[in-house]
Design brief:
Length: about 120
Amino acid sequence: MSVQPDGPYEPLIPMPELTPDALRAAVARIAPSRIPALTQHLFEATTNAQQTQSLAPLRAFIHSWAVFVAIERHPQRAARLHALERLVNAAEEDPTDAITEIRRIRDEAEAEAGL
C-alpha cells in the first residue's frame, strides 16, 4: 500500500480486505490515533459474539471500520464529512442539508467497501 496519493483525488491507500487484521493495518496507516478505539471495538465485538453465539457483533465491527477506512482513505471526503458533522453538532442552523450529504458520503463509502 502506498501512503502518498497519485493525485489530489486519489485514495491514500487501496481499500483493504474486510478482515479485522486488514482493517487494523489500514487504520494504522491512515488514522493511527484510532487504533485504541478499533482494538476496544474488536474486543467488545468478540466478547459479544461469544456470549450471544452470533456473528452479528463481528459483522457490525467489520461494517463500521470498513466504512471508516473507505471515508478516511480519501482526505477530501473525510474533511468534508468532519466539517458536516461539526455543523450538525453545533446546532446553529437547519441540519437537513448536512445530514443528507452525510448520508450520501456514508452510502458511497459503503458501496466502495462492498457492503
